[in-house]
């Protein structure tokens, strides 16, 4: 799964070349940010609420007593209690307290307090969490609404369309890729003019395609325009609502949403990025991000130290082809500094699974002298104990001298004695 994540991250250009027009495939995956801004469900709902998008009434609680008080304050016919973690599959998850399910419905506010007491402070394990689960620190207490019909709606940034595109389907509440595969005629796409925005006729047309009729069509069109306002307001690359539902009382409500943000806009979205929940992020990936390194841990034992995403993926593939298993994906990128090289080595050597390190550097986009000096410093100070293979190639000044220095120092300080430079 981690390797597939790497390919999605770095394969955007190849996918764009293969695409023709605004396909659903490219619409959902054409643009990924440099890293992930992780917002909890209640935070996304709050952003939507602030933009006038219709969502369920909700409160957030950090203690069981707060959850009970929130349930009473809602004064709703039925209440839904949701554990707030970033992983999916919460409804079928299991707590180490013994409670089954991270999502519960009840009509009794007192039950909310009892359930919250078995959620907060306990680990919830789902199909997407680590085997030990994730500790729940917050729960969302929301008004439960009946849904008479579910639809799918999203606004996504699509490079092949040179801007945003609306994607909708009258079949919501399920995996949209399955709908696209089984019933492609039920997928509707509409390119948005970035200068004009969503026109009234476009919004009404999409609402009709989603199956809204009469007064609900106008109501759904209004929600679509508000969602586009949110899309622009927060510099999103994707706003996906699944389901965009219709209630028996005649309301159009956004029941669940996923928002992706453009990390390049962090400088003007400080309030949004300040909500970033990194408590569930991989500590190694977080440390790598501090040094502007693209790192993803894998399951193998051969650490990869490469510059350039394409070369990094090719290195992983070559290792796999010859019977080895890469321990990580690590892209130094261009313009790397000596300190980054040193910190990258610290990350690699801290992994207990690593039994060897392969350095594969192309000098066309980075100075090999910087890499060699960083490796030399790392070998001296970190007391490298695993075999190290270094490949530096490129027309960098003093290239051969640097190789000699790197080999000399590495052989001096590597206790394993297994060092190769070529």
UniProtKB/TrEMBL annotation:
The UniProt keyword set, sorted, is:
ATP-binding, GTP-binding, Ligase, Magnesium, Metal-binding, Mitochondrion, Nucleotide-binding, Tricarboxylic acid cycle
Query: What domain of life is recorded for the organism?
Result: Eukaryota
- Report residues binding GTP: 56, 89-91, 145
Q: What is its EC number?
A: 6.2.1.4
Q: Which reaction does it catalyse?
A: GTP + succinate + CoA = succinyl-CoA + GDP + phosphate
Pathway annotation: Carbohydrate metabolism; tricarboxylic acid cycle; succinate from succinyl-CoA (ligase route): step 1/1
GO cellular component assignments: mitochondrion; succinate-CoA ligase complex
Binding-site positions, Mg(2+): 242, 256
Entry's Gene Ontology molecular function annotations: ATP binding; GTP binding; magnesium ion binding; succinate-CoA ligase (ADP-forming) activity; succinate-CoA ligase (GDP-forming) activity
| Annotated positions binding substrate | 307, 364-366
Q: Does the keyword Cell inner membrane apply?
A: no
Essential cofactor(s):
Mg(2+)
Under NCBIfam families, the record lists: PRK00696.1, sucCoAbeta
Against HAMAP family, the record matches this protein to: Succ_CoA_beta, Succ_CoA_betaG_euk
Q: Which PANTHER family match?
A: SUCCINATE--COA LIGASE [GDP-FORMING] SUBUNIT BETA, MITOCHONDRIAL (PTHR11815:SF10), SUCCINYL-COA SYNTHETASE BETA CHAIN (PTHR11815)
What's this protein's name? Succinate--CoA ligase [GDP-forming] subunit beta, mitochondrial
């Amino acid at each position: 799964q981690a390797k597939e994540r790497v390919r999605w991250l770095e394969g955007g250009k190849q996918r764009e070349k293969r695409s023709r027009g605004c396909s659903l495939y490219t619409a959902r995956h054409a643009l990924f940010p440099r890293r992930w801004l992780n917002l909890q469900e209640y935070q996304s709902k709050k952003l939507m609420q602030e933009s006038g998008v219709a969502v369920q009434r909700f409160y957030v609680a950090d203690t069981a007593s707060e959850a009970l008080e929130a349930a009473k304050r809602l004064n709703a016919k039925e209440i839904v209690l949701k554990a707030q973690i970033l992983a999916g599959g919460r409804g079928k998850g299991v707590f180490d307290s013994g409670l089954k399910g991270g999502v519960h419905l009840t009509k009794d506010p007192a039950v909310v307090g009892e359930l919250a007491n078995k959620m907060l402070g306990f680990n919830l394990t789902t199909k997407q969490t680590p085997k030990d689960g994730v500790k729940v620190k917050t729960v969302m207490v929301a008004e439960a609404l009946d849904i008479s019909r579910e639809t799918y709606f999203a606004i996504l940034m699509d490079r092949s369309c040179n801007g945003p595109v609306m994607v909708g389907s009258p079949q919501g509440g399920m995996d949209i890729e399955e709908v696209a595969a089984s019933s492609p005629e039920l997928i509707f796409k509409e390119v948005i003019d970035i200068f004009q925005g969503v026109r009234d006729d476009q919004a009404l047309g999409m609402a009709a395609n989603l199956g809204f009729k009469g007064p609900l069509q106008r109501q759904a069109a209004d929600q679509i325009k508000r969602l586009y306002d949110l899309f622009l307001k927060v510099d999103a690359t994707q706003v996906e609502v699944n389901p965009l539902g219709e209630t028996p009382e005649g309301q159009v409500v956004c029941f669940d949403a996923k928002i992706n943000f453009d990390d390049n806009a962090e400088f003007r979205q400080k309030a949004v990025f300040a909500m970033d929940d990194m408590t569930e992020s991989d500590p190694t990936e977080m440390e790598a991000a501090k040094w502007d390194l693209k790192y993803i841990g894998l399951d193998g034992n051969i650490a990869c130290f490469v510059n350039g995403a394409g070369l990094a993926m090719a290195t992983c593939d070559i290792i796999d082809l010859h019977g080895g298993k890469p321990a990580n994906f690590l892209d130094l990128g261009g313009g790397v500094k000596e300190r980054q090289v040193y910190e990258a080595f610290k990350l690699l050597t801290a992994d207990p699974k690593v039994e060897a390190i392969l350095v594969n550097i192309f000098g066309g986009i980075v100075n090999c002298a910087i890499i060699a000096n960083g490796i030399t410093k790392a070998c001296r100070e970190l007391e490298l104990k695993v075999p190290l293979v270094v490949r530096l190639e490129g027309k960098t000044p003093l290239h051969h001298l640097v190789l000699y220095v790197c080999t000399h120092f590495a052989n001096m300080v590597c206790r394993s004695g297994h060092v190769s430079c070529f």
